[in-house]
Specification:
- Strand 1 and strand 2 form a beta hairpin.
- The two termini are 29 Å apart.
- Strands 1, 2, 3, 4, 5, 6, 7, 8, 9, 10, 11, 12, 13 and 14 form a 14-stranded mixed beta sheet that branches.
- The chain is an alpha/beta fold.
- It is built from 14 helices and 14 strands.
- It folds into 2 domains: 250 residues, Zn peptidases (Aminopeptidase, 3-Layer(aba) Sandwich); 157 residues, 3-Layer(bba) Sandwich (Glucose Oxidase, domain 1).
- Bound molecules: zinc ion.
- The site of zinc ion has 5 residues, from helix 10.
């Protein structure tokens, strides 16, 4: 009798251990085997990049992108595919250019509009340039030296910072908050050095926050930022001419949602997603076409391998991560209104390079299950599951108590592509992309099977 008791207790302990379940490593291998031999998602990413580049919210290409991906998810055999409609402000960029005025000649620069820049008059605006390295430097200047001029924020990303996302976050205030400050101090326009670690000719766009009116605001390539800075040293009275043609609209738009029904808890969702929109100047291959296709791969891989999901898998391709982040907010509001139980959410929006690991937004990183998950994924190149943010699109779910997570791949080249024409499909490596798809599917599988509670 006593022996039977110990036997039952031992069996129970074994069952609760992740690694002791011998089929778990086999399922993970099955996921990787399938992902690394199926080119379906890679081919669909090429189609998305080719047919719907510059798919910013409200643009014709944003609707083409949603149609393309809706059909793709239907063909994959999702149980439900639907559009979650919402309305949002949007900004359409028609053109942007700038020239230095040197000895009466115009020297064309590599620039692009930041969103949502104000338009200039058709003939453009022309003024002297005030170069600063930080918002603080600008704040300390006399208002008279800024009024009527064009402010040029020229602090480079710090190349000695190993995590380029960290370097990005340290430099990006010049783009996100600089233009509004320049306006407040009387500038008529602003230029931001592209938030790019590399020296090249690509202007990198991105979002700007304005609160009280706006001014024309552009990004300049890093090579040209160096050039303008040098020219200013020789001639501090140097002038620049800027032209921007853009418009503000309000649009109806959609998040695209596809579900694969769960076998035990169909009303609980394992959310996985990326954003379907991309800036006007790019195919948006790494940002974030790849995140969208890695997310649809989670659904495809569950379905094709016959792996059972207890909860429903919900793929969300969010609209408008780039400009106003309206898609993420709209899904969180929709979840709240409809009492939807999102158990876990994983976002892929940090590039599709060689996998590194996952960030997880939890108060309990010492959860032994997470450590076991990481051990299981280590042979596949997942080096960490560490504390960190989930991402812009799933972020609004945090107040609803959802555990958030984000996929991270090698980050050294990401900011050479981010928000610029260089982010094209030819920069996607099939194997690297699919190692990410498989890693994401494995994490969803592990958390769905074994839960997060200890
Ligand atoms: Zn993105």
């Amino acid at each position: 009798m006593k022996n039977l008791f110990y036997f039952l207790l031992f069996s129970l302990l074994i069952q609760n251990s992740v690694t002791a379940q011998s089929e778990t490593p086999l399922w993970i291998k099955t996921i990787y085997d399938n992902a690394l031999t199926s080119r379906q998602a890679y081919n669909q990413l090429e189609l998305l990049c080719d047919k719907a580049p510059g798919r910013l919210i409200g643009t014709p290409n944003s609707f083409i992108a949603v149609d393309l991906m809706k059909k793709y998810l239907e063909d994959l055999g999702a149980d439900t595919v639907f559009l979650q409609k919402f309305s949002s402000p949007a900004w359409i960029c028609h053109s942007a250019s700038a020239s230095l005025i040197l000895n009466g000649k115009e020297i064309k620069l590599h620039v692009d509009a930041l969103g949502p820049s104000a338009s200039t008059p058709k003939s453009g605006i022309q003024a002297e340039i005030v170069e600063v390295m930080s918002l603080n430097e600008l704040r300390q200047m006399k208002k008279e030296s800024i009024e009527g001029k064009i402010v040029f924020f020229n602090r480079p990303m710090n190349p000695t910072t190993i995590n380029t996302f960290q370097a990005y976050s340290e430099a990006v205030d010049q783009r996100s908050s600089g233009p509004a400050l320049a306006k407040e101090l009387g500038a008529i326009g602003s230029i931001t050095r592209s938030v790019n670690m590399n020296l090249d000719d690509f202007p990198h766009t991105g979002s700007v926050r304005f609160s009280d009116g706006k001014i024309p605001t552009i990004a300049i390539s890093t090579n040209d930022a160096e050039k303008v800075s040098q020219a200013l040293k020789a001639n501090p009275k140097l002038k620049i001419k800027i032209k921007v043609d853009a418009e503000d609209i309000v649009t109806n738009t959609y998040n695209l949602i596809a579900d694969l029904k769960g076998s035990e808890k169909p009303d609980e969702y394992m959310v996985v997603g990326g954003h379907i929109d991309a800036w006007h100047n790019t195919q948006g291959a790494h940002d974030d076409g790849v995140g969208c296709l890695q997310s649809t791969e989670v659904l495809r891989l569950f379905k094709e391998t016959g792996m059972k999901n207890k909860r429903s898998i919900r793929v969300i391709l969010f609209m408008d991560e780039e400009l106003y982040q309206s898609g993420g907010k709209a899904y969180a509001a929709y979840s709240k209104e409809n009492n939807i139980k999102n158990y876990f959410a994983l976002e892929s929006d940090a590039g599709g390079f060689t996998p590194l690991g996952f960030m997880i937004d939890t108060t309990n990183l010492n959860n032994p299950k997470l450590q076991e998950f990481q051990k299981l994924l280590e042979p596949y190149g997942i080096h960490f599951i560490i504390h960190g943010g989930g991402g812009v699109d799933i972020g609004p779910l945090k107040t609803q108590g959802v555990t958030l997570s984000s996929y991270r791949s090698d980050w050294h080249r990401y900011f050479e592509l981010h928000h610029c024409a260089n982010d094209s499909f030819d920069k996607i490596n099939f194997r690297e992309m699919q190692l990410g798809s498989a890693a994401m599917t494995s994490l969803i599988y592990l958390i769905d099977q074994f839960d997060l509670a200890e």
